[in-house]
Amino acid sequence: AGDVLIGVPSSGLHTNGYSLARKILFDDLGLDPNSRIPGLKNSLGAELLAVHISYGPLVEDLLKKFNRPGKPLVVKGLAHVTGGGFIDNIPRVLPKTCNVEIRKGSWPVLPIFNLLAEKGSVPEEELYQVYNMGIGMTVFVPRQQTTTVLKSIAARKLKAWVIGEVTRGTGEAQIINRSDS
Questions:
Q1: Do β-strands 135-141 and 161-168 pair in parallel, antiparallel, or remain unpaired?
Q2: pLDDT tens per residue across span 59-104
Q3: Checking DSSP bridges between strand 161-168 and strand 4-9, what pairing results, if any?
């Protein structure tokens, strides 16, 4: 409890939620891969097929730099936000006595997710369980190491944000409004 959750951005859907996205975009809205949607930088097909970011080099760098033998751990947990979104993936690295509060609005949600939410009338809980909502990797660190880890991520030309914190609890991820914290 008291540790911070850092989020590293995704490039899009990555590998999850395509059945729901196809239903909303192609079946319900009648769009096709060549459709141009205001707010999206590329065609709909290009947005859906955005190349998945490989977090391997970042993870290796963070572990090598911050988790040295005989020293206290700085990177205490990592969760790749894949199928199951925030709700299923992040709790896998939590102790059973802790929760994580993830603050909506603490990172920019990619336009493709806003489009799916708006046009698909998908309940918010489902969005955060199906999609990465613009966060592809999360890193748990002690609060006092936050700035150092954020700088290390930035040195790799990646953005990152503090998106939540660990609290006492029962091993769950909770999505809260930024103003609720």
A1: unpaired
A2: 999 999 999 999 999 999 999 999 888 999 999 999 999 999 999 9
A3: antiparallel
For residue 77, list its beta bridge partners.
Answer: 140
State pLDDT tens for residues 95-146.
Answer: 999 999 999 999 999 999 999 999 998 898 899 999 999 999 999 999 999 9
The CA–CA distances, whole Å, from 144 to 61, 106, 107, 140, 167 equal 19, 19, 20, 12, 16
User: In the chain, which residue ranges form alpha helices assigned H by DSSP?
Assistant: 18-22, 44-48, 56-66, 85-89, 111-120, 124-130, 146-155
Asked if 170 contacts 1 with a C-beta cutoff of 8 angstroms, the reply is no
Distance CA 139, CA 23 (A): 32
Tokens representing residue 74 in the block: 């700085």
Q: Which residues pair with 6 in a beta bridge?
A: 139, 162
| Positive/negative CA dihedral, 13, 14, 18, 22 | positive
Helices 56-66, 146-155: inter-axial angle, 10-degree rounding: 140
Cβ contacts of residue 49 below 8 Å, gap of 6+?
12
> Letter for the amino acid at 32?
D
Residue 125 sits at φ, ψ, to 5 deg, of: -60, -40
